[in-house]
Each structure stands twice: as structure tokens, then as C-alpha cells.
Design brief:
Length: 497
């Protein structure tokens, strides 16, 4: 399959621009063009050009989808089938909106995600393209990290933003600058945290773990990626995104779980040697094995206690740093609707209300759901009664004009595509998890880095899915496309051997 409709230099330039512009999520000119902040991505426009001029013609001429694209294609077909079935449902009217319009809008966002995944895998499959793309990501990532630190420093110094800071930000985004929270070039701080967790932090963390760098030059053995990882974590903290913190913890959890087995073996072997545990004539083999098992169990419990202690310390720190979490440890089980009251104090009640609304829609239509974009039409009846006590819920449900969604990727998948669509999407993620795990065990530092990156993205997406409500944000699609590219290169290398 050849992408030969565009001259190679022009195609590379388009890919260069797409990668560099990834941090920009709501470019004003694009927002005016598409009339939506959700898909106001300049990189999305470039993606559309590459897809229409190169990828689709090549695919129609007999090109093959990557093996990981098959469950994704099945998910798209299942979602289309669910939407077709929705014409037989009695969909309640909602402020003049139509299921057809919502369905088309939702399919645009799905198309942005799917083609980001496929085009990324295709554009980086040649030798050297992954490294080149990683360098571009480092450059764009370094820029947004420095810009965000400028936001933080300026706010701390003067308690506001000068006109030239505002002007620069408005050139790249329709969003506003937030008080005491950094946004990068994204629409809002949570989107900035999302792009860090779905693309940049997994890239830099995996490079640090695998000791790989896309750049040749190091200073005192410290790579670009090492420095960017530290700055990235600082920026994530400054974004004040609670789901962002949890996503980073999930990545670290995957790393520690993976390394625990190796660490336990090393410590057990060292202890056996140090204490002269010999499975020879002086000691039966069964007794020797019992000692090793007891030591492993004891070490596992000790590590678990350490991890739990770190979680508690982190929660205490969060409750002190973020005013929204100041009541984290204040739970009154004797109150009516105690869980709702507890979440409401932390400004989580409205979001959880929409999650439960989506779940209620799923319970009513469990097999195929109600079709993409249609779950919000049912929210007037599906929302829990106590949800209406939150001003934000009343404002969005009664004051807004658009159709809402569950504000949760997993609840949305269940409500709009049913159990069928949900499991097909999960199968796609599982296939990429297994591939990432395989790559992370390769001898090549590059392949090992991409493998770790894929593991981190899959783990973080599991958490981020409780906050993300759109398929159009391209970051996890892009990262997982890189995993497919690395897998294809590894397969070609093994075939030549």
C-alpha cells in the first residue's frame, strides 16, 4: 500500500505539521470552520487531507488494514448498526435537536479518532519514522510545558494574566486562562492533563524506563526525555486535574506491578544466598521451597503496605492542595443519600449523575444501545432523582440547548452501543495491551519503549475514560497507532531473520 498521491516531501511536511500541532485543541479558525470546540483541531484538518488524498485511495486499491484495525472496524460497524436500529425506538424530543444530527456529529468524532489511529500506524511504519516522530513530539511537548510554566509563574507573581499573555493564548485557543491552573494550548486544564497522560507522559516515562532517547545528545547521561518527564509531571500537578492524577497513578501502578515479580525474585535469591539456604543433603527441597514462599509472601505484603501508604500520603496531599478535595476524608454514612452528598462536596456529584444517567439508558437498552449520540435524549427520565439537587445538573439540563452525553466514555459506550459495542471496543484495547506487553519484552530499546508506552496509555485510558466523553480527542488514538507501527516493524524484522 503506497501513499503516492502526494509528493513525498509534501506528505512529510503535512505529517510534521500534524504532529507539531497536536497540543492545539481548539484553534479559533478551525472552530469557526467546523462550529465545534470539540473537534477544533488544526491537526484534524491535516489528518483529513492526508486521509482523503492518500490513505483512503490506497485502501480502496487493495491495501490491507493492520490486524489491530479489525476489532476497531467491527466496533464501528456495531455502532452503525445500533444507530440504524435506533429508528425503531421511541426517542423523546429534546429542545429541537434531532437524532440524525446527533448521530452524524458523533460519527465525525469517531472518524477523527479511527483515522488518527490508522494514519499514524501507516505514516510511521517505515524505519526511522518512529524516531523522527518522537523527536517532533518532544519539541511540541517542550513548548507547551514551558508555556504552561509561564502561565503558572505569571499567575503566582501578579495574580492574573497580562494582555499579551491573554492575546497569545487566544490566538491558539477559544478557551480562557484559568485562575491558578495551567492549560497549555488546550481548551481547558482537564484537556491539557488528558493530552499529557495519553501521549506525552507515557512517551517520556517509557523512554526513561527503557533508557532510550530519540536524540543522540545527552548531558551527564541525562536525556531529553528524562527532563521532559520531570517537567511534565510538574505541569500535570499544576493542571489540578483529579482524573489526571489518577491516570498517572495508574501508569505507575502498571510499572510497579510489572516490576514486582522481578524484584521479588532478585530479593529472594539474594536472601537465599546470604542466609545459606541450600537445597542439598542438609536440607530437603520441600523445606527450601517453603522458606522461599514465605519470604515472597512477606515481601509482597510489605510492598503492598508501602504502596497503600503512598496512596494515603498522596490523598492527604491532594486534600491539602486542592480545595475541592478538602472533604475527602469526611464521610457521614448516617445521612440519606450519603454517597451523593459526599461526592457533591467534592464537586463530583453532577458528573456522577450523568454517569448514572448513561447507565440507566444502558439498562433499558442493554444489547445494542440507543445509537451514537442519542443517550442524551433519554436523560430527562434517566437521571437519578437526587441529581436534580445539583445546580450544575439543572443548568445543563434546563438551560443548555445541546444534547448532553454521559460524560464518561465507558458509560457512553454502554448506553449508545450496548454490550456488543462495548466489548468490541474493549477487545480492540485488549489486543493493543497484549501487543504492547509483547513489545515491552523485546531486546530493542526502541521497541521496548513503544511497548511500555502502549501499556501506560491503555492503563491511563481505563481511568481517563471516566472523564473523557468524546472520541475526537486524538491523543490515545495517536499513541496506540504508534504501537501498531512498532509491531509491524518488529514483524518485518523477524520475517527477514
Amino acid at each position: 500500500m503506497k501513499l503516492d498521491r502526494i509528493p513525498p516531501l509534501l506528505l512529510r511536511s503535512a505529517w510534521f505539521a500534524l504532529v507539531i500541532l497536536l497540543p492545539v485543541t481548539s484553534f479559533p479558525l478551525v472552530v469557526k470552520l467546523v462550529r465545534s470546540d470539540v473537534v477544533g483541531l488544526p491537526s484534524g484538518i491535516i489528518l483529513g487531507v492526508i486521509t482523503a488524498a492518500c490513505y483512503l485511495p490506497s485502501l480502496l486499491k487493495g491495501g490491507k488494514l493492520p490486524v489491530h484495525g479489525i476489532p476497531l472496524l467491527m466496533f464501528v460497524l456495531a455502532a452503525l448498526f445500533s444507530t440504524c436500529l435506533s429508528v425503531f425506538l421511541s426517542i423523546p424530543p429534546y429542545k429541537g435537536n434531532t437524532p440524525l444530527g446527533e448521530g452524524l456529529s458523533s460519527y465525525i468524532t469517531v472518524a477523527v479518532g479511527v483515522f488518527t489511529f490508522l494514519v499514524t500506524a501507516r505514516m510511521t511504519e517505515k524505519p526511522g519514522r518512529l524516531q523522527w516522530t518522537f523527536r517532533l513530539l518532544n519539541y511540541s511537548g517542550a513548548f507547551i510545558l514551558v508555556w504552561s510554566l509561564v502561565q503558572a509563574v505569571v499567575w503566582r507573581l501578579i495574580g492574573g494574566y497580562p494582555w499579551y499573555i491573554e492575546l497569545f493564548h487566544r490566538f491558539f485557543s477559544t478557551g480562557v486562562l484559568y485562575a491558578d491552573r495551567v492549560t497549555g494550548l488546550a481548551l481547558e486544564p482537564s484537556w491539557f492533563a488528558h493530552q499529557l497522560n495519553m501521549l506525552y507522559l507515557p512517551l517520556w516515562l517509557s523512554a526513561t524506563i527503557s533508557r532510550y532517547s530519540a536524540h543522540r545528545r545527552r548531558i551527564l547521561g541525562i536525556s531529553w526525555e528524562n527532563v521532559l518527564l520531570v517537567l511534565g509531571v510538574i505541569n500535570l500537578v499544576l493542571s489540578m486535574s483529579r482524573i489526571g492524577y489518577l491516570s498517572l497513578l495508574m501508569m505507575l501502578f502498571v510499572f510497579f506491578v510489572r516490576m514486582n515479580g522481578q524484584l521479588l525474585n532478585i530479593i529472594t535469591s539474594w536472601a537465599a544466598k546470604k542466609m545459606n539456604w541450600n537445597a542439598d543433603k542438609t536440607e530437603s527441597l520441600s523445606r527450601y521451597q517453603k522458606k522461599r514462599r514465605r519470604l515472597r509472601v512477606g515481601l509482597f505484603i510489605a510492598m503492598l503496605c508501602v504502596y497503600l501508604s503512598l496512596v494515603i500520603v498522596g490523598a492527604l496531599a491532594l486534600s491539602r492542595l486542592d480545595d475541592r478535595m478538602s472533604t475527602l476524608f469526611e464521610v457521614n454514612f448516617t445521612q440519606d443519600h450519603w454517597l451523593y452528598r459526599y461526592l457533591g462536596k467534592m464537586d463530583l456529584g453532577p458528573r456522577v449523575s450523568f454517569w448514572l444517567g448513561g447507565w440507566q439508558v444502558f439498562e433499558s437498552h442493554p444489547i445494542f444501545g440507543v445509537g451514537l449520540g442519542n443517550s442524551g435524549f433519554f436523560f430527562m427520565d434517566a437521571m437519578p432523582d437526587y441529581a436534580w439537587s445539583f445546580p450544575e445538573v439543572r443548568s445543563l439540563m434546563l438551560g443548555g440547548s445541546g444534547v448532553l452525553n454521559p460524560k464518561n466514555l465507558w458509560s457512553r459506550l454502554l448506553a449508545e452501543t450496548g454490550i456488543v459495542g462495548f466489548f468490541l471496543f474493549a477487545a480492540w484495547m485488549l489486543s493493543l495491551w497484549k501487543t504492547s506487553d509483547e513489545l515491552s519484552r523485546k531486546s530493542s530499546p526502541l521497541l521496548r519503549q513503544v511497548g511500555w508506552m502502549g501499556l501506560f496509555v491503555c492503563a491511563a485510558l481505563t481511568t481517563e475514560g471516566f472523564s473523557v466523553d468524546s472520541f475526537a480527542l486524538p491523543y490515545y488514538w495517536f499513541s496506540l497507532g504508534l504501537v501498531v507501527s512498532a509491531y509491524q516493524q518488529a514483524q518485518e524484522t523477524s520475517e527477514r531473520l
